[in-house]
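Hi P.,

Sorry for the delay on this. The queue was packed all week, but I finally got your sequence through. Input first:
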Amino acid sequence: MALTTLAHHIDIDWLREAYRRTRKDGATGVDRQTADEYARNLEENLRSLLERAKSGSYVAPPVRRVHIPKGDGSQMRPIGIPTFEDKVLQRAVVMVLEAVYEQSFLNCSYGLPARPLGASSAASSTEPNSEDGGQVGP
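Then the structure:
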């Protein structure tokens, strides 16, 4: 079976839930629109976003590039900050992908933020195995 699109899973209720799950106190994108400003016309904004996403006319705006200090403060690293609306749509897509693919992951699968174990746990779970030469997992 080949998956060609998952967009049909996203509807207005899905976008409302994505909005609910989107962090509201994050930095603003290139449009400088805050979560509070987006919420003032929430239903209209979500319906417009849904229409653009479903019709294929949605174009993600550029991300705002900022530089933040690395751990010790001696160097800076660039990060990109999407607009709030783009964060909502990204969250909606993540929710669909998690619903589809999360069930395929095993307890020995690592690397997804939703998992309680991270890369350090994966590294510590590597044990020599005569069959697979020390691969992570079973």
